[in-house]
Amino acid sequence: MPSEQTAFFDTNVLLYLLSKDQSKADRAEELLADGGVVSVQVLNEFVSVANRKLAMKWNEIKDCLEPLRIILRVQPLTIDTHDQALAIAERYNVSFYDALIVAAAKLSGCTRLYSEDLQHGQVFEKSLTVHNPFKA
């Protein structure tokens, strides 16, 4: 059973590991050092941005993913994730892709969601709180 302190990481936090903004890169590294959870969706989005926007080569992307997949537990995408995301998107009026992140975090037992994309301090389903780790 995951610890109630377990954090879930949105894609943007992982991408800051590759940032030229050293303070954000350091903050992301500090948070990830404690471990946590990501979903297959987060890994997929990381690959897409790294390839498309950052023009990284496939071997470079794989080299970045390898340590992440070791230190972070990966939550699979299932039909249950999909169904919960539909309900979350409707209830909280968030995009379906953000709702998938929230659903995966909830299903993995996390209480903290690190993200810049969702509203800092927002609470989902009375137990998952969004934290923007880069907020001043």
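Second entry:
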Amino acid sequence: MTFLKISGTLLLLLLAANLWWRGSSRRRSLPCPTIFAGFLESAWMERLIGTQVTLDRIGLEPGQRVLEVGVGPGRLLIPAAERVLPGGEVSGLDIQPGMIERLKARADRSDVSNLTTVIGDATQPHFPTGSFDVIFLCTVLGEIPDRVAALQQCYEALKDDGRLSITEIFPDPHFQSRTTVQRLAKSVGFRPQTIHGQWYFHTINFIKNGEA
């Protein structure tokens, strides 16, 4: 079998796996497995998928209370904890206990003390109404079968005029287009504020009870 045939076969297999994972996520929660956490934590991966760019787009400020939904091993939340100092606090929510354990270990190694964690389903209430200034999700929305319910929980947990930030990166198997993200967020009451990036790597910020 020639190199081109092998490459084509591998590409088709990857595409098929991508489509299967994407379709299955509409019926049940299929987040990125904990066994891939080390890959997500690598410096190479942080540069490839724009950790600092994403945080810049979210626009965190000192003193804010911030929640990341689908926090994983903390690729974004650890540096976010530093950005909200002094006086700010961050929380991470994830459905996988293994990811939360990785996050706690990484926070300990980085001497991050303004971070708390919660294990739970994003479609269920875990925080009092109006707890946060900013809530963000990165390549997570498509992993949640009931995306509207998860966004409704974000809406309730945000303060009035709080910010929801959603980042999507292609070719993540759960990739959500800008049109889809805006439609879903608007359906629960969010108003678009800013759109950053191109179709394949975009961040959209929304405001609760704010003006577009």
